[in-house]
Design brief:
7-stranded mixed beta sheet, 11 strands, 247 residues, 4-stranded mixed beta sheet, binds S-adenosylmethionine
Length: 247
């Protein structure tokens, strides 16, 4: 599905145009949008501090962005928390498929987590991540966000080059067409707008580069990533976490 870059206020038009070029996406100025024609299209709406993704341009469509404050108080994933048990104090983690950073925030909530590198290869998504981090002002949230650093690169490339050893590497590849349940809005947006292709060999490399554990998020009915059998799995109603222990 196509993603266009646009703006709401006319003073943001020029910057939206420049961003479209940076992102390699098409720019449409607000005045030129035919609401009926673009009813099902996605838009990256540039605003000076708070850009967002919107599907269609109807009043009912909800803005999608990295809402770290909301997620820090109203979301938790007990299953993912369980997967982190037994990691060492001050563990250093890498989220190889950061997306909107929601799972990364969950990992950062673990008091033993010292630092977390979020890698996201899509430029527009990286921009939203950066903005979400910059907009974090709440004191409690900042304690989590301060653990973050971010990089706009393919994580396979990063892992091939880095000399760092991560205690934990987290991978959440896209899964689709496995279950009947409708994905939440933000995840559906990622499914529609990001390349679904899995990076071949990413798990194999992650296992070599992690000193303690690799966690892979899958749909509960999906086959093991790269057909590599995990040490064990933790299964929920919809997702399954496959855990690969290094030692
Ligand atoms: C299912 S989403 C992850 C959602 C994320 N866990 C969250 O909480 O928002 C997968 C994301 O990983 C990114 N991605 C996939 N393969 C990647 C790779 N090899 N390097 C960097 N990013 C990758 C995709 O662009 C997409 O945004």
């Amino acid at each position: 599905m196509e993603l266009f870059v646009s703006h709401e206020s006319s003073q943001n038009k020029e910057k939206a145009f420049i961003l479209a070029k940076e992102f390699d996406l098409k720019f449409i100025s607000q005045e030129a949008i035919d609401k009926r024609k673009y009813n099902q299209s996605y838009f990256f709406i540039y605003q000076s501090k708070h850009s967002f993704i919107r599907k269609g341009l109807g009043k009912l469509s909800k803005d999608i962005y990295c809402n770290f404050l909301d997620w820090s108080v109203s979301f938790d994933d007990p299953l993912l928390s369980r997967c982190l048990k037994g990691l060492p104090d001050k563990f250093m983690a890498l989220d190889a498929t950061a997306g909107f950073g929601k799972d990364a925030l969950e990992i950062a909530k673990n008091p033993k987590c010292k630092s977390l590198l979020l890698i996201e290869r899509e430029k527009w998504l990286f921009y939203l991540l950066q903005e979400g981090i910059n907009n974090a002002a709440d004191k409690d949230l900042l304690q989590l966000i301060n653990k973050f650093s971010i990089e706009n690169i393919d994580s396979f490339e990063h892992l091939s080059k880095t000399r760092k050893n991560y205690d934990l590497i987290y991978i959440d590849p896209m899964f689709s067409g496995v279950g009947k349940s409708k994905a939440k809005r933000a995840i559906q947006t990622l499914r529609d707008l990001t390349q679904e292709a899995e990076t071949e060999g990413l798990l194999d490399l992650a296992i070599k580069r992690s000193s303690k554990r690799v966690i892979v998020k899958r749909h509960k009915n999906s086959k093991f990533l790269e057909d590599i059998k995990p040490s064990h799995s933790i299964k929920g109603k919809v997702v399954r976490y496959d855990i690969y222990n290094s030692s």
